[in-house]
Amino acid sequence: MTWFGSLTVAFVQALAPDARALADAKKLAKVSAWRRLGREGDAVWGVALGSKGDAYAVFARSAEDARCSCPSRKRPCKHALGLLLLVANGHAFVEEALPAGHRYT
Prior knowledge:
- The protein is built from four helices and four strands, in the order H-H-H-E-E-E-E-H.
- A hairpin with a 2-residue loop joins strand 1 (34-40) and strand 2 (43-49).
- The protein has one domain.
- The longest helix is centred in the C-terminal third of the chain and has 11 residues, at 78-88.
- By secondary structure, it is of the alpha+beta class.
- The mean pLDDT is 92.
- Pfam families: SWIM (PF04434).
- This is SWIM zinc finger family protein.
């Protein structure tokens, strides 16, 4: 997972489409904001808890290829940025296959 070790918080911040997305992503950059987290090979994934109780599938194969099933038009969305911030902050993702039905757009 070569991109894991080289990802920095500053790089993730630069990916944010606007200040609001970044502020919201910082709130998601903690394990308690996620229903599940894992990694499969060179990708990380998570199930983010939405503000209205929804769960969103989030997936990143690299910092530039982070996707989410949420309805936001921002790319990357706050959930994808939050997952990338977890990576940049050194969270240890456990090797686990993507959950069945894990979809992202």
